Structure formats: structure tokens, C-alpha cells
Amino acid sequence: MQRNKAKALIVEDNQDLSQLISEALEEDYRTDIASDGRSALRMVKNRIYDVMILDHHLSDIMGLTVLEKTNLISPSLKTVMISAYADDSVIKKARKLGVYDFLEKPFYIEKLVKVVNKAIEKKEDKV
Predict the structure, then answer these.
(1) 63-72 pLDDT per residue, tens
(2) pTM strictly above 0.90
(3) In Å, what is the CA distance from 47 to each residue of 21, 44, 93, 101, 109?
């Protein structure tokens, strides 16, 4: 019998990168992809996710705003932020908002998978 896969939401406006992340996670996760912040917020309102991989620099609203709003909708959602445009103030604010980890682009996909797995383990420890 197959165990239930954790659910991951990938919020990334670069279609190639979001597909790469989805494929890297597909063995252990059911993934959904949102290409902008507004879509991500709608999805978080309508589905339960275990982890969100969130780009900071989106086409419509910034990742920190998405993070603030998802914290209100789904406080237990673990978030891993990614960005090529993050400075110390962005990273500091993300940590203050409870982000599990922050990876700067470019990153190794294997590292992202490890971080996502650790975020899920941390979430399961609290359950």
C-alpha cells in the first residue's frame, strides 16, 4: 500500500524552473504549480499543502507579501523561499515571517529537495 504523498505548492514564474522543481519532488510529493502570487493565494485558500516553495520576485506581487498572507490562511504551511534578488533585509524579513529556509538562486536542485524534506520532517514532528 502506498503512503500518502505530501503536497507541495511551487510558486515560481519561470516555467522551466518550476517544472524542474516539480520533477525533482515528484517521487515523494504531489505538486501543484502557481506562476504568480495571486494564483498561489487562491490555491492555498482552496487546498491544504504541507510545504510551499516560493520565489521572492514574482510577476504580480512579491513573495514576502504572499508569505504574509499564506501565514494567515494556513499557519502550519512550511515555506522555503528562493530568489536571485534577495538582499539581507529581504532574508531577515522572511525569517521574521517564519520562512523555514531561504535559498539564493542559482542553487543545486538536490539541496532544495533536502531542505523541503527537512521542512516536512519538522512539520511532522509538531503534529
Answers:
(1) 999 999 999 9
(2) yes
(3) 20, 5, 26, 22, 25
CB 79 within 8 A of CB 54: yes
Helix (H) or strand (E) holding 53: strand 51-55
Count each helix (H run) and each strand (E run) in the chain, helices first.
Answer: 5, 5
Q: Would you kindly state where each structural domain of the chain is located, as residue ranges?
A: 6-126
Q: What is the DSSP letter of 60?
A: S
pLDDT at 85: 84
Per-residue pLDDT band for 3 (boundaries 50, 70, 90) equals low
Q: Give the CATH architecture of domain 6-126.
A: 3-Layer(aba) Sandwich (3.40)
Give residues with Cβ within 8 angstroms of 111, minimum separation 6: 103
Residue the block writes with cell 504541507: 50
